[in-house]
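Try this one yourself first.
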């Protein structure tokens, strides 16, 4: 029977050196114990900061003007969420590359209408109050042209928006009921009622915080807090914890792509990063099956550097 030819690209050479007893259970137990002690000790000394959750109430109290301006953009359908597209609405193009567009394939699964969901429905859920009720009825009974004229007048004057005596002040008399609606929504937010109203739109008992989070994401307040905590996309924020604390180092590869063209300037940047990582992950999984690539470690012989003392003894 002929001996099978050795294939360096596939077969491992037969070991002809000496064998040394090795207690892997003992070594493993010691390693686990040391790592456990270090983990507990370092967690006590360098624990992650416990930042308080950001809510619409805390946002509207800290920066009521930013909240009111964001609420107005939701009301006019010009906010980021209103123009995002799937899975929230049909307001914007889906991310993709060529014919590949999973966002479009999935479609609108969490329907968000910022005008109704973020402004009108929460206001209508408030206890009856004559000024607010009149403003809501006036808005609903007006034609689309009249509504556009009101929001245009308010938008023009909103650059001079001020906050005093717990009220949003906008210098215009041509905006119809819009000032009342935005001011009442701001007061509702400052009381904490808006947080609850956005959560309970789909039922009283729910843990779905999608709408409050989307509302928060449209304002400048959350973005500014994130930048101050070194969490911005251009600050490698995906792998950081607040305050520039080290986070999940294995995420550096995801974050890296967001720092270079065309990922950092493409409207489909998220999709391109995801696609790139899927390709790299597939290549990693398929390494044992790709001729040439699977032989790189054996041909580079880096293992001989790691085990240099062992090979020195064998060759002496």
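Now uncover the answer:
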């Amino acid at each position: 029977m002929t001996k099978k030819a050795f294939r360096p690209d596939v077969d491992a050479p037969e070991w002809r050196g000496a064998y040394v007893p090795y207690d892997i259970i003992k070594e493993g137990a010691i390693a686990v114990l040391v790592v456990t002690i270090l983990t507990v000790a370092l967690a006590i000394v360098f624990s992650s900061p416990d930042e308080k959750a950001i809510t619409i109430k805390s946002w509207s109290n800290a920066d009521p003007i930013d909240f009111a301006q964001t609420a107005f953009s939701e009301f006019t359908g010009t906010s980021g969420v209103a123009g995002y597209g799937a899975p929230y609405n049909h307001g914007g193009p889906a991310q993709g590359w060529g014919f590949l567009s999973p966002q479009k394939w999935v479609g609108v699964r969490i329907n968000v209408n910022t005008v109704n969901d973020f402004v009108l429905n929460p206001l209508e859920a408030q206890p009856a109050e004559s000024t607010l009720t009149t403003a809501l009825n006036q808005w609903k009974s007006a034609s689309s042209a009249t509504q556009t004229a009101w929001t245009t007048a308010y938008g023009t004057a909103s650059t001079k928006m001020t906050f005093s005596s717990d009220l949003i002040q906008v210098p215009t008399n041509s905006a119809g009921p819009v000032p009342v609606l935005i001011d009442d929504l701001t007061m509702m937010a400052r009381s904490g009622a808006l947080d609850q109203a956005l959560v309970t739109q789909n039922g009283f008992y729910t843990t779905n915080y999608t709408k409050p989070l989307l509302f928060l994401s449209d304002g400048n307040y959350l973005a500014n807090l994130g930048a101050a905590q070194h969490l911005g996309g251009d600050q490698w924020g995906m792998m950081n914890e607040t305050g520039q604390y080290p986070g999940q180092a294995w995420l550096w590869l995801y974050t890296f792509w967001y720092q270079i063209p065309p990922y950092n300037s493409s409207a489909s940047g998220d999709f391109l990063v995801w696609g790139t990582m899927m390709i790299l992950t597939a290549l990693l999984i398929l390494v044992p099956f790709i001729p040439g690539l699977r032989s790189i470690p054996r041909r580079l012989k880096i293992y001989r550097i790691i085990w240099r003392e062992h090979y020195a003894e064998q060759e002496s």
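Discussion: The mean pLDDT is 89. Residues 229-285 form one domain.
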